[in-house]
Write a structure and sequence with these properties.
Layout: H1 2-42, E1 60-66, E2 73-74, E3 80-93, H2 111-122, H3 126-138, E4 143-145, H4 155-162, E5 169-178, H5 186-189, E6 191-195, E7 200-205, H6 206-210, H7 212-216, E8 220-226, E9 238-241, E10 248-251, H8 255-271, E11 276-283, E12 289-295, H9 312-315, H10 325-334, E13 343-345, E14 348-353, E15 359-362, E16 369-372, E17 381-383, H11 384-389, H12 393-402, H13 406-415, H14 439-445, H15 455-466, E18 470-472, E19 477-482, E20 487-491, E21 496-499, H16 503-518, E22 535-545, E23 550-564, E24 571-579, H17 588-600, E25 622-624, H18 633-640, E26 646-650, E27 656-660, E28 666-668, E29 672-677, H19 692-702, E30 705-710, E31 714-717, E32 730-735
Helix pairs in contact: 2-3, 8-17, 10-13, 10-16
């Protein structure tokens, strides 16, 4: 019993000791917790009494946004059309209390010097920069930005400012959307820019806007721990959202062809005083658009002045004129009613409508409408082939009155999809209107008046003439690729209609289209090329003035629908402009487009050339014109070797004082290079075969006036070859 009692006493003592230890530990823990709570509440260190909230103000969990790259836009060869690049926003710290780690000045010290340098680097007026600095100082601000003037500086601009030795300038990294070629189907591609509201780059117009969701991607986010000094703690990073870059878009456009088209349209606007100009180049068999543009255009990077927001090839609707005539002829041929051996009276024709709605020919001036041939020309009694080659309106009226029912002609035009929406993926479109409400409208439809369409509708329908009799649907977006997975999320597919024209019809209509170019009296004879054979149809359309309720009297749509090479067409080109110049316009710009287009599809060859008296056959290539002024003739010949095929030295001087084309201008080897020497004597050259533009350039360089008659190339000149040209001379040129 004593033993048990002793054991019991020892157990009680042990339990008391455990309890005491537990109480002591609990007190210690309570003191620690109290200390922590005190620290949290008061921000004062328990031992030192010093606040640690300031020490830890940057510590904790930090979130950083990972900006996704906007998808790029590429041409058919992978050349960049639009892309994101790193850029910088400029910030100026003006608080004089700001010092560097070594106590040096770290604010903008001299406003005049700083603003002058920023102006020099950015191109912004110094007064604007100085205004921002002075306003910030007046409002006692710590720092200032410069609005849009200080945003999206390039890496080179940043480097120039950093190396300038200026104090107080800081740079915030950002992203800028850039376009390596500033004029590149501007209305079609459109542009994107930084949005203050969305805090990201967003599409504003064109494909950049239409495909904004596909191009934008999604931003990511990363979190990590920082210490009390705000420094990153290793191995604490964690992605809470992965950034996914935007999709890349690949277009069918070819950079070389596009640049050539842009240059041609710019020259067309200037030389013809045109209000509008446009062009579409399509690969005949596939429907791929190699180039397309409309002018007036704008600089994709600057965007300071935008006169035209519509993409003219797809959104400008117009009455096309005589380029519609092949559709009537092809329909008559396919129906077996084309009057091969018949003839008709050209010049004009008057028609009336009887009580049954039947249209019939009446004596001139006694009908309800009289249709005249262009320019008031009357070629007498001619065959229908010649009527097509000369592009007579009377031939169309005679066919529709006597051989092809107008309603059947309309059905053919509908089968050619002339009035259907093209609905090209990624392309905004305005469609024209078929006007065939009465019998007279149905006749006028045959020569392209009263009914409107856009360029894509026209080139789509005409594709049947130049391939296998089937309509080929054009497209410009080749594919869209997810760069994160390399998955092709969209792939274009070629679309063709059923065969609409038989081989005999194709052979017959193509033969006529070739003769429109090759015959001396053909309306496209001035487009004839020495190195490439063409088939084509020209058009001159009146322009309806909706405000005044009638047609304009001095502005017309001049255009050409062509295919090359004529033996086996690889490309189809529709080229048009609106101007008061409907006769004496230069076709060289169009010819440049043809050559570059065939080069793009590996189909350019001088072996298929045709011989003409207008120009000499030569290999075609594009080059940048070097600066030739004040250089020796040996130097000039070496610089032009292999590029310029025809160099015209003006005068017998020893030094070149003026040149055309100008330095750095995109030039082609088939165009003439004019070099004015320091001579006062100018001898008249033989201008046979020169173009209107060649003659104009020559006369402007030597300072004499020139007048022209006819169209095409030089046939005769009234100042004899080899004669000394006097300052008061007026040269007259006959073109043919």
């Amino acid at each position: 019993m004593k033993i048990k009692k002793h054991i019991k006493n020892k157990t009680i003592i042990a339990n008391r000791r455990i309890l005491s230890i537990t109480l002591i530990l609990g007190l210690i823990v309570s003191l620690i917790i109290a200390n922590v709570v005190y620290i949290m509440v008061s921000g004062v260190h328990f031992r030192s009494g010093k606040s640690i909230l300031e020490e830890k103000k940057d510590s904790g969990l930090y979130k950083q946004q990972i900006i996704a790259s906007r998808g790029a836009i590429y041409d058919r060869n992978g050349e960049i059309i639009a892309q994101d690049i790193e850029a910088y926003n400029l910030i100026a710290v003006i608080d004089e209390n700001r010092k560097g780690a070594d106590g040096s000045i770290a604010y903008v010290e001299d406003y005049d010097v700083t603003s002058a340098k920023i102006s020099e680097v950015t191109g912004v007026e110094q007064s604007i920069i100085l205004g921002y600095l002075n306003d910030a100082q007046a409002n006692d601000l710590y720092q200032t930005e410069f609005g849009s003037y200080g945003k999206e500086l390039t890496a080179q601009q940043k480097e120039d400012l950093v190396n300038s030795g200026l104090t107080g300038l800081e740079f915030e990294s950002t992203i800028d959307r850039v376009y390596p070629i500033s004029h590149f189907a501007s209305q079609l591609v459109g542009y994107a820019q930084y949005s203050e509201d969305d805090e990201k780059i967003s599409g504003v117009m064109g494909m950049e806007k239409l495909f904004d969701e596909e191009l934008s991607g999604s931003d990511g986010e990363i979190t990590y721990q920082t210490d009390s000094a705000g420094n990153y703690i290793p191995n604490t990073s964690k992605y809470t959202a992965i950034a996914e870059n935007g999709n890349n878009i690949y277009l069918t456009l070819d950079q070389n062809v596009q640049v050539t088209v842009e240059a041609a349209l710019a020259k067309t606007m200037e030389s013809n005083n045109a209000e509008k100009a446009w062009c579409v180049v399509m690969e005949a068999e596939t429907g791929k658009i190699l180039a397309q543009a409309g002018y007036p255009s704008f600089d994709l990077n600057e965007r300071e002045v935008i006169e035209e927001f519509n993409n003219l090839p797809s959104q400008h609707v117009f009455e096309p004129g005589s380029v519609m005539k092949p559709f009537v002829y092809a329909a008559a041929m396919e129906e077996g009613v084309y009057p091969n051996d018949a003839s008709f009276q050209s010049g004009s024709i008057s028609v009336a409508v009887d009580g049954n709605g039947e249209v019939y020919e009446v004596a001139e001036g006694s009908g309800i409408v009289t249709i005249n041939d262009a320019m008031g020309k009357d070629y007498g009694t001619i065959g229908y082939d010649e009527g097509f080659i000369r592009s007579t309106n009377t031939a169309i009226i005679e066919i529709l009155l006597n051989f092809l029912d107008p309603s059947l002609n309309i059905e053919y035009m509908k089968n050619f999809k002339l009035f259907d929406r093209v609905d090209m993926y990624g392309v905004e479109e305005n469609t024209g209107q078929l006007n065939a409400t009465n019998e007279i409208d149905q006749l006028m439809l045959g020569f392209g008046q009263g009914t409107s369409l856009n360029s894509y509708q026209l080139i789509q329908g005409a594709s049947a003439f130049f391939t296998d009799g089937r309509v080929t649907t054009p497209y410009v977006v080749e594919k869209i690729v997810d760069p994160n997975t390399n998955e092709v999320v969209f792939q274009a597919e070629q679309e063709k209609s059923d065969q609409l024209l038989s081989d005999p019809t194709l052979n017959q209509i193509q033969a006529l289209l070739k003769r429109v170019v090759s015959e001396d009296y053909g309306t496209a004879n001035n487009y004839e090329m020495s190195d490439i054979s063409l088939m084509a149809k020209t058009g001159t359309g009146e322009i309806y003035d909706a405000e005044n309720g009638g047609y304009q009297k001095d502005i017309y749509t001049t255009s050409i629908l062509a295919a090359a090479p004529s033996e086996n067409p690889e490309v189809i080109i529709y080229y048009g402009f609106q101007s008061n110049n409907i006769q004496y316009y230069d076709t060289e710009y169009f010819q440049d487009i043809v050559r570059e287009s065939l080069l793009a599809v590996d189909s350019y060859s001088t072996n298929n050339s045709q011989t003409t008296s207008n120009t000499q056959s030569a290999v075609f290539n594009v080059y940048a014109m070097p600066n030739l002024v004040n250089h020796s003739f040996d130097y000039i010949n070496k610089k032009l070797e292999g590029n310029a095929n025809q160099v015209i030295y003006i005068g017998d001087g020893t030094s070149v004082i003026e040149q055309y084309p100008s330095p750095n201008a995109e030039s082609v080897s088939t165009q003439k290079v004019f070099l004015l020497t320091d001579s006062i004597n100018h001898i008249m050259p033989d201008m046979s075969g020169w173009s209107r533009k060649d003659v104009t350039v020559y006369c402007e360089m030597i300072g004499i006036d020139v007048t022209f008659g006819g169209s095409g190339y030089v046939a005769s000149q009234d100042i004899a070859v080899g004669k000394l040209i006097e300052e008061s001379s007026v040269l007259h040129i006959e073109l043919t």
